[in-house]
Amino acid sequence: MLKFYNTLSNRLEEFKPLIDGEVRMYLCGPTVWDFAHVGNFRANVFADILRRHLKFKGFKVTHVMNITDVDDRIIARAAERGQTIDEYTAPYIEAFWQDFDAIGCERPEIAPRATEHIAEMVTLIEQLRERGHAYNSDGSIYYRINSFPAYGKLSKINLAGNIAGASERIDTDRYEKEDARDFALWKAVETEAETGWDAELGRGRPGWHIECSAMAMKYLGTTFDIHAGGIDLAFPHHENEIAQSEGATGKEFVRYWLHNEHLKIEGETMSKSKGNYYTFRDLVAQGYAPVAIRYLLLSVPYRKQLNFTFDALRGAEKAVESLRNFGTRLSEARCETGVNEELRETTARIAKEFETGLDDDLNTSVALAALHNLRNATNTAIDECTLRLVNKTEIEALLKRFDSVLNIFGQTEREMLDAEVQRLIDERQEARRRRDWARADEIRDELAGRRIILEDTRDGVRWKRG
Ligand SMILES: [Zn+2]
């Protein structure tokens, strides 16, 4: 039975979508003011495992992830550079998708941009005004938290306390509000020179929270199944999304709220001032394979804090390499026809472990353990010459099925790990010593096909990526 931990109820719940066989899910996407960091990618890999497991279970998935391409930081930086916000964000959007593909995430079905949905946000704000949830002040429009008694139901925030300024996104100094907790839906823009949109509401620009409500409901309906994101977004962002959406429609917004925990770097919170802030591309530039980063990020279940260390990253590279070697060994294994019943039972048990693990709130560490068990059992059978043709076919199919969720074998365009490159270079040297020119050439071509350039030097063969 598929179960998720729902932040709304604070418990593990059986997952049943609104429409049988179909899941509609939303993930808060990137704010494209800079390159995405490794913490952002923990959320992306978590959502990727979620969507892939739902597909593994046979659901049709519609996954929406917004692109926040307007906010105060983007506007300020674009102005500094004398660019329009489109000019400023375009390279970051492109970089985001490159990173997203490289880390093996499947693209969502729909990735709407905030600046292309201003009309939907304006309509939603108008609905909120009609229903008494919003008010004007100095040209800006605010959400009246007092008008929504259920406020706090997701984050269980204590409203008695003063929460003003709890988020850097709430600007408490600049505008007049009825209540310090109220948040901006529409921010007045006074001059033509400043980035803004002319609307019935007056010239302005949307607040961050309203964009997710507007785009989620446009593409997924007023009520949908899953909303995911990092735990830091539960308050105030997701709380505000609920207040806006349910305030406007009077209907339940989201049925299951899933939040992933933070990650730490070498035991510490990641920050630019500590010098431990890494974008995904920083790590790739240092030579770490994207698939190893993916493996490390998914090795810890999403609701547990993850300590991202370079030792663990090197360990992840070795783990991926050993799994890929196993995949190669299996495909090259010669075996007799027939079936080894004992191995078949073991394989079936491991298949169950994998699925049960992921069904239990996406326990990826159990799923990975199952994969390693499969490798060990199969390697033993190959060593002992007890692998039979039926087993081989079944295990190959199972590996493919596991990898449809984990995506670490890289059935599409797989990049090569440093250790694999070195192994092939060593094998090529060995082939040349044996005067096996055909094999040596084959390896050279294989490496060239993967853009690995070889250089013969006095100290031996050196290589680099082309
Ligand atoms: Zn959002």
Structure description:
With 466 residues, this protein is an alpha/beta fold. The chain folds into three domains: 258 residues, Rossmann fold (3-Layer(aba) Sandwich), CATH 3.40.50.620; 139 residues, Isoleucyl-tRNA Synthetase, Domain 1 (Orthogonal Bundle); 48 residues, no CATH class. 46% of the residues lie in helices and 15% in strands. The strands form five sheets. A four-stranded parallel β-sheet has the order 4-3-9-10. A four-stranded antiparallel β-sheet has the order 5-6-7-8. It has a three-stranded mixed β-sheet with strand order 12-11-13. Strand 3, helix 1 and strand 4 form a beta-alpha-beta unit. The protein is globular. 41% of the residues are buried. About 2% of the residues have low confidence. The structure holds zinc ion. The site of zinc ion has 3 residues, from loops. Zinc ion binds next to loops.
Compute the average pLDDT: 92
Termini, distance in Å?
47 Å
CATH topology of the largest domain: Rossmann fold
CATH architecture level-2 label of the largest domain? 3-Layer(aba) Sandwich
Q: What is the strand tally? A: 15
The share of residues in helices is 40-55%
Question: What is the strand content?
Answer: 15-25%
Largest beta-sheet characterization: 4 strands, parallel
Biggest sheet: strand arrangement: 4-3-9-10
The secondary-structure element order is EEEHEHHHEEEEHEHEEEHHEHHHHHHEE
CATH class of the largest domain: Alpha Beta
Q: pLDDT under 50 segments (min length 5)?
A: 162-170
Supply the CATH superfamily name of the largest domain.
HUPs
Count the domains: 3
